[in-house]
Write a structure and sequence with these properties.
FAD/NAD(P)-binding domain
């Protein structure tokens, strides 16, 4: 047996209040294999760690068990400590007696103490059979892929490129900019969004380390951290970017009109179009689904008037294959469809719109040149109602979460409306005002007091017309307990934020996880907020959860720093706790191949027999293959079947 040291943490009162620490130490020190046992109030503190270090040296320990909190919190701490002391870090184990014991057994100290002893015994039995392992080393391709060209993707790309590494920025739309470029002004400073974002967009297009692939989509990703293989579909614009001089003659002759997506379908555009004046790449795109000039050419007027001969109807989709070492996912958000909430009249009444549509009305580059006018009759609305939490915090629509920014942009909308229509009346129906950011509470107060925006605490039940051009809003004032009926000229709905269309399909291609609402899941909400559970994938912006612009930019820079940290190493190190295959008993059935969620296994012919082969760099040790292996050939390092059986016997004895 090994010489194992057991160190029991009080965790202040978190453990000691429920578990009898003295009894645990006295009992466990006589357990087979345990050479030393000690307790301390905070094992993670400097004195606590020094206690462990000294004991390893003085007692000649070759394995240690730290009985404390979750390994998610401190396994890395104590494994680093072991390594610095000369002990193989994989001879250090965490016995979780906080989350798995004291926190769930506060009512029975005796039973909690007994359970803590059993938990520690199981880890001692496991440690007795642990191997000393070394990290798996793999080369790294120092090039990053950023998926999504909104503010998160732009910031991440610039930070990675400024650190000296190449970046491939892929955006599915014809231009980068995302939703931020659609905004009129940004809270709480009321800066022009284009003024803030356009310089960064230009910087992306000119940066020598950034390759921009707009109007492109990810088709397939394979490989593993440091060595991903990416297939990208570059869609044809039917306009040669280097030749187009933006003269606009093609627009004049194009006979097709279709709703303008950038303008949130408030106005129309031509089949050949520039999404917005500051678009990057600065070139026109032909909407093939709307243009009549294909198969066979039935129009071709744009090509006839194009002096630089930039129109090319023979352009074909192009498949681009690249190798990258890290991937940052910044796919952004969409708004929940207001048509799914029929009682609010969206789609039925022109003057009921969502927040992004109102942004375009407010914008100087929008369809009305910044004037607030009703879509139904082009009149200036004298009373506008803003409705919060439309879809958000609403279990009926399966969106119980808060969309986080709606309270703030409703205050901004009401404020800007009052600036443009000083004699107008702005009314906000809200459930709660959530203004959690620097200067946010002051901004809402300013809207209420200086701009005299009326806030009514209550949920709107119905919006309809009552025989004239006015909209009727039925709601409740929960502060007075009275029903409220408001007649108005326009209604703006603060729709819930949902993952961007296409995120679900992309997640399946990337093989990363998401939560029940479709947002990409982080590895740990507190300690690893910008990392995916799958190594090499990083998150930023609203692909992970609803958030505002400052938080998005901060998270994008955090992801970029993680990528730079990854690329700073000559070799990547992967956890060695992976699955091995005993080729002597593997029968080559292939069941494990289809079950592996990381594509880490394949069949190979060895000495005339089919056997399973593990790519250790891809393997994450999830154990799916082990549970399905009929011969028992698949075993997880330091958690073999023999170890598990011994641990179960110890726990049940």
């Amino acid at each position: 047996m090994k010489r194992i040291g057991v160190f029991v943490c009080w965790c202040g009162s978190n453990i000691a209040e429920v578990v009898d620490i003295d009894q645990v130490v006295e009992t466990i020190k006589d357990y087979p294999g345990v050479a030393y046992a000690e307790d301390y109030v905070y094992m993670c503190s400097d004195p606590g760690q020094k206690l462990v270090q000294d004991a390893i040296k003085d007692k000649k320990l070759n394995s240690v068990i730290i009985a404390c909190c979750s390994p998610t919190l401190h396994e890395a701490t104590f494994r680093d400590l072991s390594r610095l002391t000369g002990l193989n870090p994989y001879q250090c184990e965490i016995a979780n007696i906080r989350e798995q014991c004291s926190w769930v057994h506060k009512d029975n100290r005796e039973e909690a103490t007994l359970k803590a002893i059993k938990i520690i015994r199981t880890m001692v039995d496991k440690a007795n059979q642990n191997e000393s392992l070394e990290p798996i080393k793999t080369p790294v391709t120092r090039r990053a892929l950023v998926i999504g060209g909104g503010i998160a993707g732009i910031q991440a790309s610039l930070d990675i490129a400024d650190a000296g590494y190449e970046v491939l920025l892929v955006e599915k739309n014809p231009s980068i900019g995302g939703h931020m470029i659609q905004l009129s002004e940004t809270f709480p400073t009321l800066d022009c969004s284009q003024c803030i974002l356009t310089p960064k967009m230009v910087a992306v297009s000119r940066h020598p380390k950034i390759q921009l692939l707009a109007y492109s989509e990810i088709q397939e990703i394979s490989g593993y951290v440091g060595n991903f293989n990416v297939r990208i579909l570059k869609k044809p614009r039917y306009v040669i970017e280097d030749k187009c001089n933006l003269c606009g003659k093609c627009l004049d002759v194009c006979p097709v009109i279709t709703p303008a997506k950038f303008e949130e379908n408030l106005v129309v555009r031509k089949a050949i179009y520039l999404p917005f004046p500051q678009a990057i790449p600065a070139t026109y795109t032909i909407d093939i689904e709307q243009c009549p000039g294909f198969l066979p050419i039935a129009c071709g007027k744009c090509a006839e008037v194009c002096e630089p001969e930039a129109i090319d109807f023979d352009m074909q989709p192009e498949i681009i294959e690249e190798k990258v070492g890290a991937i940052v996912v910044t796919t952004g958000y969409d708004l929940y469809s207001p048509q799914k909430i029929g009682e609010y009249g969206s789609g039925k009444y022109e003057d009921v719109m969502d927040g992004l549509q109102f942004e375009r009305l407010l914008s100087a580059t929008g369809p009305t040149g910044g004037e607030v006018r009703r879509l139904s009759d082009n009149k200036v609305p004298k009373r506008v109602v803003f409705v919060s939490c439309v879809g958000s915090r609403d279990p009926e629509h399966h969106l119980p979460y808060c969309s986080k920014i709606c309270c703030m942009y409703m205050a901004k909308h009401a404020m800007l409306y009052k600036h443009k229509v000083p004699d107008g009346e702005a009314i906000v129906f809200y459930i709660d005002v959530r203004a959690g950011g620097k200067g946010y509470e002051e901004f809402v107060t300013r809207a209420q007091e200086e701009d005299r925006v009326l806030y009514i605490r209550g949920k709107v039940s119905k919006i309809f017309k009552n025989g004239n051009d006015k909209l009727i809003v039925w709601g409740a004032d929960t502060l007075t307990g009275k029903q409220v009926e408001v007649e108005c000229d326009m209604v703006v709905l603060a729709m819930a934020m949902i993952p961007n269309d296409g995120t679900k399909d992309l997640i399946s291609k990337l093989k990363i996880s998401s939560n029940e609402h479709g947002f990409i899941s982080e590895a740990h909400p507190k300690l690893r907020p910008v990392e995916s559970i799958s190594a090499g994938f990083f998150l930023a912006g609203c692909s992970q959860a609803p958030k505002d612009i400052p938080e998005t930019v901060a998270q994008a820079s955090a992801s970029a720093s993680k990528v730079a940290d990854l690329f700073a190493e000559k070799e990547l190190k992967h956890e060695p706790t992976v699955v091995t295959v005993d080729e002597n008993i593997c029968n080559g059935c292939g069941i494990c191949i289809s079950l592996c969620p990381y594509d880490a296994r394949e069949l190979e012919i060895k000495d005339g027999n089919r056997v399973a082969k593990v790519n250790e760099t891809l393997c994450e040790g999830c154990g799916s293959c082990i549970s399905a292996c009929p011969s028992g050939a698949a075993q997880l390092r330091n958690l073999t079947d023999n170890q598990i059986i011994k641990m179960m016997e110890s726990a049940l004895s």
